[in-house]
Design brief:
Order of helices and strands: HEHEHEEHHEHHHHHHHHEEHEHEH
Strand order of the largest sheet: 1-5-3-4-2
Oligomer: single chain
Largest sheet: 5 strands, mixed
Number of strands: 9
Distance between the termini: 66 Å
Shape: elongated
Helix content: 40-55%
Radius of gyration: 27 Å
């Protein structure tokens, strides 16, 4: 298959210069299209996701094109070229999963009990709608790719990948650097740190963790002392300002930096990850006497890395930090849940949410490790919608000035003000009067 550098050489030598094809819609042979893709005449742009169809879905696709009587729609293939005054190859903006599944069928027809000649006949006999478009740049193609896939199984990681892929100097500087971010943070996931399962699919979770890699790097590189929540745990795509997503944050950081500076930062982060992982492993096996073949789950481990960066950025001493790790691993039993017990009742408590430290203060209180006496950052109240009746406040059970955000209950405003900064002696009544 022709690679990108070879294609650029061909263009520069003025041989077989790609022709700018007029935009339009037409019916084409699926065989002709996949062959053009196979030899590099149609290329996969950076924002296209990798192969994500499972084997059963690839098999279903082949059955659909083999059995035309099924009448199932086969979708549209979308290609584009850049109309920027320079020779442009054609790029595949939608249809990569179908194209790659068809190429696999042609390479291994025996899987479907077909001969090589039968597979070629099947694919040649398939006609498929193709739309061809022009864009001034890949960013515009990315926007259409996002619109095409909105509401489908595209994950936020796949949807926003182009934000990084089309930044300046991505090919020669930042692509390998971003790959290294992932390798530094994920080096332990298949050895010490094990998955304990969950409701999300493997692909969803994997992509959440890839975005969390960016969040861990950003928290360290920007030396954040607060409790910023990088919203990476959703599997749904929401329309938000690019500057507010983790990929947009990382792009802005890298744009204003040079590669040598960022490599030094990543080297320091790698040392922190190595050291903290060794400490967590030692506590798990030697202090908590857990089986050496087990571990905390991957999401808790990642959350503890965020906490370790927060600890480093705020110069929290080692002894209280190690006590925090020991109690956190013991109390949660290696999961992300920290239930709160009050008056014999188990309440929701805190949660080690991926990319977020919003519950760190609550969890430290639940496990009774006061690491915040060493913290000099400003704690801000979270604005909450007040659905209480007039004259009723949403009061903190423990003083906000000492403990920050925590459990709240409705309480008459006069009682709230007369108590001042004292802790609540007993939770007030929560009948309909206060709701």
């Amino acid at each position: 298959m022709t690679d990108f550098n070879d294609l650029q050489r061909i263009i520069s030598d003025n041989e077989d210069i790609p022709i700018l094809i007029d935009p339009g819609d037409e019916m084409v042979s699926l065989y002709e299209l996949v062959m053009e893709f196979d030899v590099g005449e149609i290329r996969k742009p950076r924002h296209q996701r990798d192969k994500v169809w499972g084997q059963s879905k690839r098999d279903d696709w082949i059955e659909r094109i083999k059995n035309k009587k099924l009448g199932a729609p086969i979708g549209v293939i979308v290609t584009y070229q850049l109309n920027d005054g320079s020779p442009s190859p054609r790029w595949l903006n939608d249809g990569y999963q179908r194209v790659s599944a068809t190429l696999e069928y042609l390479a291994n027809p025996l899987r479907h009990n077909d001969s090589e000649s039968k597979a070629i006949k099947v694919v040649k006999a398939t006609r498929i709608p193709k739309q061809h478009r022009h864009y001034e740049n890949h960013d515009d193609a990315l926007k259409d790719f996002q619109n095409i896939n909105k509401g489908t199984s595209l994950t936020p990681y796949e949807y926003y990948h182009g934000v990084l892929a089309y930044m300046d100097h991505y090919d020669n500087l930042w692509e390998e650097f971003i790959k290294r971010i992932h390798s530094v943070i994920q080096k332990y996931k298949s050895s010490f740190v094990n998955r304990r399962g969950g409701r999300r699919t493997g692909r969803d979770t994997e992509h959440i963790h890839l975005r969390d890699d960016y969040a861990i790097f950003l928290r360290f590189a920007k030396r954040e002392k607060g409790f910023i929540n990088y919203k990476v745990s959703s599997t749904k795509i929401a329309k938000v300002d690019i500057r507010k997503i983790v990929e947009g944050n990382l792009r802005e950081l890298l744009k204003g930096s040079n590669i040598d500076e960022m490599n030094k930062v990543l080297n320091n982060l790698e040392r922190l990850v190595d050291g903290q992982t060794a400490l967590i492993r030692d506590i798990w096996v030697n202090k908590l006497n857990e089986d050496v073949g087990t571990s905390s789950n991957l999401s808790l481990y990642r959350w503890l890395l965020h906490c370790a960066i927060w600890k480093t950025n705020n110069n929290i001493p080692h002894d209280p930090w190690e006590l925090f790790l020991e109690k956190a691993l013991h109390y949660s039993n290696g999961t992300t849940s920290f239930p709160q017990v009050s008056n014999g009742k188990t309440l929701r408590g805190g949660s080690a949410n991926t990319g977020s430290l919003s519950d760190l203060r609550k969890i430290a209180r639940i496990i009774d490790v006061d690491i915040f006496i060493y913290y000099d950052g400003e704690i801000k109240r979270i604005n909450k919608s007040n659905k209480n009746l007039p004259g009723i406040d949403e009061s903190h059970v423990l003083p906000f000035a000492d403990y920050g955000e925590g459990e709240t209950v409705p309480e008459p405003s006069l009682r709230n003000r007369s108590r001042g900064k004292a802790p609540m002696k007993g939770a007030p009544s929560q009948d309909r009067l206060f709701s």
